Amino acid sequence: MLEQTDGGSPLFADPAVFDGVEAKGVDPSVVLAQLIAAIHQVEWRVDLVRETTVWPASPAPGPNGPEVEDDPWATGPWVSELHLPARDTLAGVHDGEVSAVVARWVRAEELRGARVEDMQPVAEELILLAKRARDADDQLYCWMSV
């Protein structure tokens, strides 16, 4: 798939292959995890959103990092599969809860200066994507680049 988009986001493949949401700046381990924390009404923890890297497909570099400058582990893009609890948590949000969830989410330090009216559409799209994925028994993936 990444070959079809020359490493670019699979959302922009022609023809479209994946259902998805463009959510620049919403990384899984921090900002998305802050949304999960807001849904559960708990403090953020590093383990709220677990993920498995599925791209690059080559073995991960050792503790000293990639050996060559153009190693995809250094240059990206990176794709991770989000574990099911993240999908199911997002999919479990009822329409009437979204505003309150987003109001809690924007209080996260990482979203400093974000406004509810700007983040609510992002949250709504992520929630709807998660519902479609759950209903289709599919996973959620996150494509990231530098």
Describe it.
- This protein is α+β, with helices and mostly antiparallel strands and 146 residues long.
- It contains 5 helices and 3 strands; from the N terminus they run αβαβαααβ.
- It is 36% helix and 10% strand.
- 23% of the residues are buried.
- The model has no long low-confidence stretch (mean pLDDT 89).
Fraction of residues in β-strands:
5-15%
| Approximate shape | globular
Radius of gyration: 16 Å
Distance between the termini: 19 Å
Record the strand order, biggest sheet. Answer: 1-2-3
Strand segment count: 3
SS field, number of helical segments: 5
Task: Give the helices and strands as they follow along the chain.
Answer: HEHEHHHE
Instruction: Please bin the fraction of helical residues.
Output: 25-40%
Mean pLDDT: 89
Unreliable runs, pLDDT <50, ≥5 residues? none
Structural class per helix/strand content? alpha+beta
> What about the largest sheet?
3 strands, antiparallel
Task: Summarize the topology.
Blueprint: H1 28-40, E1 51-55, H2 72-75, E2 78-82, H3 84-91, H4 98-105, H5 116-135, E3 140-144
Antiparallel strand pairs: 1-2, 2-3
Summarize the structure.
By secondary structure, the chain is an alpha+beta fold.
Label this structure with key terms.
alpha+beta, three-stranded antiparallel sheet, 3 strands, 146 residues, 5 helices, single chain
